Amino acid sequence: MPSAGAADEVKSSWADEVEEVEGGHLPATVEKNDGNSKTIIEYSLNDDGKKVKITSHYKIEKHRVARTIAVRKTWRKYGLSKSDKPGPNPATTITAEDVFMHFLSNKEEEMNEQEELKEKLINAQKGQVKCRLCKEDHWTKQCPYKDKLEPLRTSLLGEEKVEDDQAQAGATPADKANKIGGVTQGKYVPPSMRDGGSKKGESMMSARGRDETATVRVTNLSENTREQDLQDLFRPFGDISRIFLAKDKNTGQSKGFAFINFKRREDANKAIQTLNGYGYDHLILSVEWAKPSTTQ
Amino acid sequence: MKPIMLQGHERSITQIKFNREGDLLFSASKDVKPNVWYSINGERLGSYDGHSGTIWSIDVKWDSSLFLSGSADQTMRIWDVETGNCVSDLEMKTSVRGVNFSYSGTMVAYTTDKMMGHHSELNIIDIREPNNVDATPIMKTQVTPTDAKALAVLWGPLDECVITGHEDGAVIKWDMRTGKKIEVGTEHTKQIKDMQLSHDGMMLITASKDTTARLWDIATLESLKMYKTDRPVNSAAITPLVDQFPHVVMGGGQEAMDVTTTSARIGKFDARFFHLVFEEEFARVKGHFGPINSICFHPNGRGYASGGEDGYVRVHVFDDAYYQFKFDF
After folding, report:
1. Does residue A178 share a domain with residue A213?
2. B residues 15-44 near A, CB within 8 Å?
3. Tens digit of pLDDT for each residue in A244-275?
4. Please, one GO biological process term (chain B) (predicted)?
5. Which of A56, A94, A262, B135 fits as disulfide partner to A267, beta carbons 3.0 to 4.6 Å?
6. Number of domains in chain B
């Protein structure tokens, strides 16, 4: 509590007000009414002898009602409410917390949801499992056309390269010939004997060497960035051969940097010129040439 | 929606009722003073002081001039709604369980409990002179031979019949003039807790302890629909806007004696909305922390009020979501 002198100097200080209440004076109730709303400020002492200020806001609504209802509204209160002031008494009438009507989804919706889920599962499986014979979404072993298609396919393989031939990429022409003769696929072929085993394979080194000439590094990406976003962002500058977005192994969220391999160096250069310092997703991108990795 | 909570009673609510226009809401509880409130803002108009026992049942005359209360203190009182004065105090031999004004407001039907050697009775008296009521019934019927006491009473159309709901689950339609049974509905297996008329008075909904509510055709007393829940139903009401929103609201919960041993979360004290025709539940509203003992729609169908074992009356006005809800079928 400041000294009496200080309180005198500053007229409207809070200390002044406290003094007043301690003296037993409570400010009078203030009522403001501006037609649409009413505000009542009341002061009272609570059980601990502290001053409590209660501000109540009322919204005034006007309703047009039948005469009988209007008459009833003017009746004087009686019984337990005899001494109540006009308007709701806060002791008996409380505005309760907001409650919501909770709508129950009915059975049909539930069914639909279940079906959707099933469909999703099926779709997800579609991508994972693909028959090598008929390209449908089941395992090759369970293919209903196995007996018909397999001999046909193996015979065709000799002349044509089938698109998803990776599983059999290692098979030598000799093997293919064997298969036509009825030998099963699972036969082991040593790496040196496999297709391409004789020639020098594309090494990782060479791939990188080629790419890095036109690779840009993008940093300061936001966590929510996805490959598609980068594709949208960089595609206008030229053909992109590869996008690598560093992601957290567990959460799958972006780690904030990415590498974009352009097909042409000029395109990459253009991208750097334009996008370095570009505001994207509330962050400012930093785009620069990727440095050759030190391990090389 | 933000309900208004009315806190005027010291004990659990037994019955709430709107007047015909819906501007007044009457509430009765196991304490001795029925209350009347303005439904628009929850302001209490007053209380009716004089009873000395639980108020079991209340009713209000069509023009909101008279209020009727039946009590366990073995009296039925008629009150002036405007002043809160007791106009007439009628003493009975046993406690009064159900009371109801006739549609015309000239007669009152009431049922009494079976107690102290007296049988449960259905009586009708003339109240055309409320200040000087002749307490001798113009029709008197013993609720025999089942002798299960009548808990609720309603007038049928044109004041030609009276319908009572009984402790053994029977719904009985009586001829007003002869005092004989016309129809008996025995679909309910346990006691009838509440009966309410539809807005046009052609249908009746009963709430029973056997966990169901039923919709009846008044003319034939045929059970048209059944609304099944998993707990005793204490009260059920049909919306006045039955043509646009064919809905039924039900309130209940477990037995009052078990309430303290279960939490509100699993106590299932919500008001439950059912589709009138398809008998399927489509919405719930939480709020009470005891079973709902009495529930009714506002006569304009834009809201409802519920009174619970917790002693509170909650007055709700529907959100837009209620009107926009489309029932899929």
Report:
1. no
2. 21, 23-24, 33, 35, 37-38, 40-44
3. 888 888 888 888 889 988 888 888 888 888 88
4. formation of cytoplasmic translation initiation complex
5. A262
6. 1
